[in-house]
Amino acid sequence: MSIADNLSQVKREIADNCHRFDRPESAVTLLAVSKTKPLADLETAYQAGQRLFGENYVQEAVEKHQQLAHLPHIEWHFIGPIQSNKSRQIAETMDWVHTIDRDKIARRLSEQRPAEMAPLNVLVQVNISGESSKSGVLLEQLDDMVELVQSLPNLRLRGLMAIPAPQADEASQIAVYEPLQQAFLALQTDHPEIDTLSIGMSGDLAAAIASGSTMVRVGTAIFGARNYP
Description:
The protein is built from nine helices and eight strands. The chain has helices at residues 3-20, 39-47, 58-67, 87-93, 103-112, 142-151, 170-190, 205-210, 220-223; strands at 29-33, 52-55, 75-78, 96-100, 120-126, 155-162, 196-198, 215-218. Strands 7-6-5-4-3-2-1-8 form an eight-stranded parallel sheet.
């Protein structure tokens, strides 16, 4: 199937799960994970109506941002790990960053965001499975990170992101997401401007939508198997 057909199918799956879990279709936004994909694929998805693109690798993200700058309303989300020496490139090009989990990185992104640009939309990455190999703050550290990010003038805290460990079935996926969903709802009570819960990929889309996701990150189901650099 074509990229346009794949996009339609993914959007139908999102809509079906929104209906299944009694949520409006408009509650969940699709982020197309375009890492390692050629510009032509992104342009095809754009022509099919996709506007949000997620990138994991800094140099690739910056190059795509430059080469597709002529496309109106395209929105760039950085969803990979951030090295200190790459933070300036991210601060100068991206619209969103999903992977804030260290004080140093948050401070650098705020300091390096150009004054003429709008504040950088950011999500705090939470390690909800407690895996030592995974990035993200633990839930008990979340309040401190939220307080820091909200104190930084060139960042705008939009919510939370997580990548849980794989689970055997949908019920287990939902169970893993439950503490994160509760933390997100609690944050919204104190900070009503927080509006984004970035959870859910191809393998756990239904569970994420059941758990209050407002943004799902889908790559392979749109663009096909990954191309490794």
